[in-house]
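Entry
Fold in token form

___
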Amino acid sequence: MTILYFIIAISLLVVIHEYGHFWVARRCGVQVQRFSVGFGKPLFSIKDRHGTEFSLAPIPLGGYVKMLDSREGPVPEHLKDQEFNSKPAWQKIAIAAAGPVANFIFAIGVYWAVFSGGTEGLIPVVGDVISDSPAAMAGIEKGDRIVSIDGEVSNTWQDVSWQLLDYLGETTKVSLTLSNAENATRQVELNLVEWLSASEQPDPLGGIGLIPRLPSLSLTIADVVADSPAQQAGMIAGDRIVAVNGEQMDDWNTWVDRVRSAPNQPLQVAVERNQRETILTLIPAAVAMDDGKLVGQVGVMAQRPNIPQDWLVTSQPGIAQAFVMGVDKTGQLIGFTLESLWKMITGDVSVKNLSGPITIAKVAGASASGGLETFVGFLALLSVSLGVLNLLPVPMLDGGHIVFHLIEMVRGKALPESVQVGAVKVGMLMLLMLMSVAFYNDISRL
């Protein structure tokens, strides 16, 4: 299913991206010879009345639009006016930019639909503060509600996470406005030093030491991961955890703490099943954290608790406002992606955050299991990333072609073909290096 959702995600985004090029090329009078989804020998193809071949190829890692171009071979005299290279530079720029723009339009449409349907989020009230963390040193306390971060309103924990991600890798001070149970407000200041710069998977809330307020989880197991230590010990969904090594378990957090503190150590776990108590021998797997510390993990999930309505904030904007929110959200993601790339270049953020197709596939599968809204939200995020990546001024990418055509507008003629070919070779080398790092990160995460 993970592979299936990966193929669906990549194929859909490729179609959207390439259709942008295709649509604008047709409007500029350029003959499109092939619209391919995937690479390799086509599995099947059809032609439309304009002679464009639409094909599906077996390698689902991209696609392309092939246009009539004199640089790739001789063009008959009667088709000269339909050839890409003969078009004015502004039209070439429009065609090159159309793919990324289509990705951004798709993201806007997704967020517009999501916001129009109404959204619900958890009010950012602190459930606990980790000792000696930036939050603890700033004086944030259990029960505080985060009102704003550096003047930007924080309505939900999701808002807080996105706002904090802006400071990834930085050494800076961040101002938070808080309110307590009596609605008295105060200002505190977080001191961040190269914040999460070396983290492979940055956790903004955990990174400052905040644990959101959440309803207590019951000790009843909702699901058991296949081939996990829990399954090997004989645990099944519906079991209620009673005690560990004779110590009574009061809540799910106590159980988690007990498991995490015992990597590779046998535990005698008492569970209640069908109103009878059973003793199971459980050996938690040892999992390494970012700091190298080993913690225990067994592979069970708690039943999802009911969240009180007064812990939630609901947004139901009108159609016009939802559209503005969709544009704003897409703009935020574009800015965040560019800023993250720059921080990787400058070394403020670890290149371990780069992900390749394996990680994309895993996230696609996980988001699909969360429902349609979660999956399309992931598609929108990936679409923005694809659009931004293609606009980078790197030869071979759309951004590189745009730079070539801008130079053509200034010079009044195109760059010599030898210069363009050399630049494309450099661009290909850069992309191969980038892909190698992404693949290495993917494999190391496995």
The chain has a mean pLDDT of 90.
